[in-house]
Structure formats: C-alpha cells, structure tokens
Amino acid sequence: MTKVELIEVTKRIKQATVIDNVTETLYGGSIVGLKGINGSGKTMLMRLISGLIKPTRGLVKINDKVLGKDISFPESIGMLIENPAFLDHYSGFKNLELLASIKQIIGSEKIRETITRVDLDPDDGKYYQKYSLGMKQRLGIAAAIMESPDIVILDEPTNSLDSDGVQIVKDIVTEERDRGALVVLAYHDHEILKFLSDEIIEIKQGQVVGRT
Amino acid sequence: MDKPILQNCIKTELRKALGNYLFMLSVAIASGIAIWSAIQNISAANAYYSFIASLQTGSGIMKNPEYASVTLFNSWIGQDYTSVATTLFFTLLPILCVLPYSWSFFSERKSGYIRQIVSRSNRKTYFLSKYIATFAAGALVILIPMLINFMLVSSFIPAISPNINYDIYYNVPSANMGAELFYAHPYLFVLMRLINAALYAGLIAAFVISLSFFVKNRFAVLLIPFIAFLTLNYFSETLVVKFGVELSPLNFLGGTSLGIVNTSVVALFALGLFVFSFGVTMWQGVRSDVF
C-alpha cells in the first residue's frame, strides 16, 4: 500500500512561509481532501507531495524513500495541479500519446479508454487549443489517471465542468480509490469535498489546523 | 537517470522539436535565403565564365590563367563573401536557429506543461532531453539550407580545387582555421564549415534555454542572442583592425571574415557557449522548483 509521509515540512518562498511545519501520513486506498481558503497552502502541499517543489525544511517520504534524495519524483503519480496544460497543436489523443510515450507503460487502447472515460472522443482530431475550458479540464483529468498511478493529485478537478462532468469526476475519484490509489483532492466547495473524501485536512496559513 | 526513460524523453522532445510548424517555417525561410544566395552566385559565375570566354575568343588567349578564381568552393554559402543573400543568412542565423524550439522551455514552464513531463521522468532527464532537442532543431535549421545551397551551387559551378596563388579570391589566407584543408582537401573544408555552423546554431539555440531562467519576457529571451551577436559583430570590426583576428561568429562561420579566423577563438567561443548553456540549464533546472 502506498504511504506518503510529510515530516515537519516547511516551505518558504522568498520571505513568505507557505507551508509551516506540517507532519501528516497518507495511505493508498483513501481519498484525502484538502480544505482551505485561497492561498492557504493546499496547492503548495500538493506540489510538495508531487516532488515539484522541495521543502525548505523537513522530509517528504514516498514508501519510505525520501523525495529529492532517494527519488526525485514519486515513481507512480498522476496530477492535475492548477490549470491543465497541453500542446496546442496536437489533438487530445496525440497529447496523451506523447505523454504516455515517456514511460511506455500503457498503449493506445488504454489511452482511448481513458479519454472515453472522461466523456471525450478519442477520434476527435480537433487541436487542443480549440477545446473548450471543460474539455481541457477533462483531458487534464485523463492525463492524471491514464497510467493508473499509485498517487492521484487533483487540484479543483471540477473547475469549468458542467454537472455531467462533476458526476464523472466523482465516479473517477471513487474508482481510483477503490483500485488502491491514494487520491489527494483540493476543493473550494466544502460540500463536494465532504461528500467525496474519506478524511479532510484543513489548512490555514500553511499549517494543518484540523483533520476530520 | 533511468536510461529507457531518458531515451523515450529524447525521442518525445525530438518529435516535438522537429514536428512543429515553427521548425518547418524556419527551415523554409533559411532555405529560401540559401537558394537566393545560390542563384546570385550561379549568375555571377556564369557572367564571369562568359566574360573569360569572350576574352579568350577576342584576344587569342588560349588558356585562362585565373581558372580557379571562381569555383564551387568559394561560391557556396559557406565560403561566399560577396552576395547579399549570404550576408543576410549569417546575420539572421541567431534568430533563425532559436525560432524552431528555443521557446519551448519558456513556454512549457509558463503554461505548466513541464509538470506533465517531469513527473513522468525527472528534472535531469527533462532538461537533458530539452537541451538535446533544442540543439538539434537549431543545428538542422542552418545545416539543411547550407546543404541545399551546396548541392544547388555544385550543380552549376565546377568544383575546381582552390589554388593558393589566388587566395585573394577565396578569403582563406594561409593562417586561417582549416586553410590547409581548404587548399588540399576542399570537400573536408566544406564538411568542417557545415559542422561548425551547425554546432554554433545548436549552441545558440540551447543558450536560450539557460536565458529562460533569468529573462521573463518571451520575445526578449529569443532576441537576446541576435542582439548580442550583432553588437559583437559591430565591435569586432574595430577590434579586427587592432588585433587582426576575427572575433565575430557572424563572420567566421561563413566566408566573410575581415581578419584571420583563429582556431582557438572559434573553439573557445563554442566552449564558452556550451559551458554556459549546458551548465546553467542543468544546474538551475535540477535545483529549481517547478510551479
């Protein structure tokens, strides 16, 4: 089972402390919701778990391996942090194919299946730049889950989505958890977060102020 | 570094670099200028040969004593120093080679696309692949047009071996880098010129990646090499009078050098570009946070 440990993690950017002495342990097979107002540190915490940023102090361990020392990134992670970003002059399928070609652990069939799972058409040759915001968000979610990663990080995944899209995200998040993945979610909508999460971590000014 | 992932990452980056429309556009523009240079040189050579033929007919001269003054080896873009198109090609080189892919890191970091790649590989792999692909795209944008030009010019102008007695027609004095090759093995000299120009173009393209860590404007980052090389070219004209050595890459990459092309200068300049661009890219890339 995947284990993510944050041990006395502090992150400072310039003079500001954005994450302040956080110690938490998260396990696979669960959905962890991050709650907090804008600028509270939810996204920074996700970036720390993802290995995108390095802690100023403290350790982040993934399955007992120290990020930035034993490994530079979690070995199996999918993420959608802030806005989805892809290459403008490629179709959705081509974009995912290009990303999948790095690890080569999935083939075209799995990519097509994942695109269909987020209710997009894998045969749609339209360039990514012509996608609507909702379609971009769906493709971002597809990229995060297509390789069945052990850790799935989703930052406000229902942004720009209609009610059908929100339902798809809810289903995906539950399915990923049931498959054994650790799903970390950040939401501004407390009701959705409460509905989806197995546990909620509340963050305020970079500090964990509650866990329910 | 995981070797298969590094190989996959390099392939992916090369696919992105060589498959994007800006690469095609840059090759098309550079090739257009190179073809224009070929046309100018072929026309000039034809006029010269007609003139010599008319002299021989009129004066009874049986053999042209300056038969080697116009040859493929001083008429192709890599050694020509007379046509406007050739001057334009080398002047625009620092822009042409950064257009295809040097913007890529800047753009991927700004959009957040970098997150998708580094999380599937790692920082070292990402930056090494990016460096290689950017270098390759920049080098090819200059190499392909120069090869087209060479093939075109060689179809019309005879490949008479250069003669040291006529060195004033070639702008390759005996102290120049590769002068022995030019007079003894001119095809090897052509190869050296091609490699040299491609190497510099690749390094200038990759140099922009390292600049992207410090410069926050997309256009500025692409224009800095062009402005820097033009400035250097401006001052090199003064310095060449004082030291006699050509210091401007815009001149020593082709045949338009005003002073002696010194091997050490060419090598040191390339080494400096490599050390700065590769060093900064890998050092900053590995230690920087990705937002």
Write the layout of secondary structure elements.
The complex is a heterodimer of chains A (212) and B (291).
Chain A: E1 3-13, E2 16-27, E3 30-35, H1 42-50, E4 57-62, E5 65-66, E6 77-80, H2 92-103, H3 108-117, H4 133-145, E7 151-155, H5 163-179, E8 182-186, H6 190-196, E9 199-204, E10 207-211
Helix pairs in contact in A: 2-3, 3-4
Chain B: H1 3-19, H2 21-59, H3 72-75, H4 84-96, H5 104-111, H6 113-118, H7 123-154, H8 179-184, H9 186-211, H10 218-243, H11 249-252, H12 263-287
Helix pairs in contact in B: 1-7, 2-4, 2-7, 4-10, 7-9, 7-12, 9-10, 9-12
3D architecture notes:
The complex is a heterodimer of chains A (212) and B (291). In chain A, helix 2 (92-103) crosses helix 3 (108-117) and helix 3 packs across helix 4. Chain A has helices spanning 42-50, 92-103, 108-117, 133-145, 163-179, 190-196, and strands spanning 3-13, 16-27, 30-35, 57-62, 65-66, 77-80, 151-155, 182-186, 199-204, 207-211. Chain A has 6 helices and 10 strands. The model of chain A has no long low-confidence stretch (mean pLDDT 92). Chain B has 291 residues and is mostly helical. Chain B has one domain. Helix content of chain B is 71%, strand content 0%. Chain B has 12 helices and no strands. The mean pLDDT of chain B is 91. The chains are: A alpha/beta (212), B mainly alpha (291). Chain A binds chain B through residues 13, 47, 50-54, 72-74, 77-79, 81-83, 85-87, 89, 98-99, 101-104, 143, and chain B through 4-5, 8-9, 11-12, 15-16, 20-21, 108, 111-113, 115-124, 289-291.
